[in-house]
Write a structure and sequence with these properties.
By secondary structure, the protein is an all-alpha fold. It has two domains: 2-75 and 114-192, Clp, N-terminal domain (Double Clp-N motif, Orthogonal Bundle); 78-111, no CATH class. Helices cover 61% and strands 0% of the residues. The protein is built from ten helices and no strands. It has helices spanning 7-22, 30-38, 44-51, 56-69, 78-86, 91-102, 116-131, 139-151, 168-175, 180-192. The longest helix has 16 residues, at 7-22. The radius of gyration is 18 Å and the shape is globular. The two termini are 27 Å apart. Residues 2-193 form the Clp R domain. Keywords: Hydrolase, Protease, Repeat. InterPro entries: Clp_N_dom_sf, Clp_R_N, CLPT1/2. This is Clp protease N-terminal domain-containing protein.
Length: 193
């Protein structure tokens, strides 16, 4: 799937990973992808978010509030590093050699996995690409994938009740007073305009 991503879309995912790690999270959620999107102002998704009043600073603050309120605490990567050290693997030495080989800061360990909700948003992203007859996935498709979480019922919850369940990214946008329902038409208008 990632071979279909444009360079800006790949950059968004790198920014999301960096954001997750900077916040001490051992996962990448829709909230981290949203920060990556907002941090790309030269893209349709970044411009739509900016024009809606979304800033990276406001996102970070609200993400922290939402996660703390839900009981999520930063854990960092220390546990994995300590586990590897216990079997004789020096992550710092690996990092030093990777910096020498690939350039400073190119190596991150561990790479946090996507949450189930973020994976679902990526599935929605792929659907958005197909529905819009695109050959590649850009940042705009990633934003549409996150927004699709607000539009589609979650069949797996409450015994298949079909109640809409939002990811943290959409919840954060709503908490910031953003009209989430207006974002999709704004993205589509810029894509076709």
């Amino acid at each position: 799937m990632f071979e279909k991503f444009t360079d800006p879309a790949k950059r968004v995912l790198v920014l999301a990973q960096d954001e997750a790690m900077a916040q001490g999270h051992d996962y990448i959620g829709t909230e981290h992808v949203l920060v990556g999107l907002a941090d790309m102002p030269g893209t349709i998704a970044g411009s739509v978010l900016r024009d809606s009043g979304v800033t990276v600073k406001a996102l970070r603050a609200e993400i922290a509030d939402v996660l703390v309120a839900s009981g999520v605490q930063p854990v960092g990567a220390q546990g994995a590093t300590e586990a590897l050290a216990a079997i004789g693997i020096d992550v710092e030495e690996i990092r030093r050699r990777a910096d020498e080989t690939f350039g400073p800061g190119k190596f991150h360990f561990p790479r946090p996995p996507f949450t189930p909700r973020a994976k679902k948003a990526l599935e929605h992203t792929l659907r958005q690409m197909a529905e819009l007859h695109s050959d590649t996935i850009g940042p705009e498709h990633l934003l549409l994938g996150i927004l699709a979480e607000a539009e589609r019922p979650d069949e797996d919850r409450d015994g298949g009740s079909g109640a809409a369940v939002e990811g943290v990214g959409v919840k954060v946008l709503r908490n910031l007073g953003i009209d989430v329902d207006a974002l999709r038409p704004a993205v589509l208008a810029r894509m076709t305009g």
